[in-house]
Amino acid sequence: MNETNRNITTLCFLSMVLIMLVSISSQATASEVQVVGKVVRTQGHTIPSCRMTQIRRSSDGALIWLRIPDTGSDNSILAVALAALTADLAVTAAYDATIGTGCGTEPRINWIEIMTNN
């Protein structure tokens, strides 16, 4: 096989691997769910991955428990949940029902944002 054919074969192989990786990553995020509502309860815990927050969904009033992951020294998800709770502001939180924190069966929050009441 000459050099040109080898380069074409390598390029085709790498393209197929890239397409496969993109397909896998899009499937991994396909199960992300977003909930809009108000934080009605937030719990602390001696084990950071066991912290939880409860959100009342705006769509139907149902309560959903979510785990607050340990994000390191910034505790950003916990900080946003606490700010929303104390200010009584609506939030949008995203989670994947199949991913937890290793503590309990509740899903882990991937991200959370505060929305204004306007």
Q: Judging from the principal axes of the Cα atoms, what is the shape?
A: elongated
Counting helices, strands and paired strands, the structural category is alpha+beta
Q: How many separate helices?
A: 2
Percent helix, as a range, is 25-40%
Low-confidence stretches: 20-28
- Strand content range: 25-35%
Main-sheet strand order equals: 3-2-1-4-5
Could you give the count of β-strands? 5
**Secondary-structure element sequence?**
HEEEHEE
Report the mean per-residue pLDDT as an integer: 82
For the report, how would you describe the main beta sheet?
A: 5 strands, antiparallel
Measured distance between first and last alpha carbons: 67 Å
What value does the Rg take, in angstroms? 20 Å
Question: How do the strands and helices of this protein lay out in sequence?
Answer:
Blueprint: H1 3-29, E1 32-43, E2 52-57, E3 63-67, H2 76-87, E4 90-96, E5 109-115
Characteristics of this structure?
alpha+beta; 118 residues; five-stranded antiparallel beta sheet; 33% helix
Q: What do you see in this structure?
A:
- This protein is α+β, with helices and mostly antiparallel strands.
- It is 33% helix and 31% strand.
- The chain has helices at residues 3-29, 76-87; strands at residues 32-43, 52-57, 63-67, 90-96, 109-115.
- It has a five-stranded antiparallel sheet with strand order 3-2-1-4-5.
- A hairpin with a 5-residue loop joins strand 2 (52-57) and strand 3.
- Mean pLDDT is 82; it is low at 20-28.
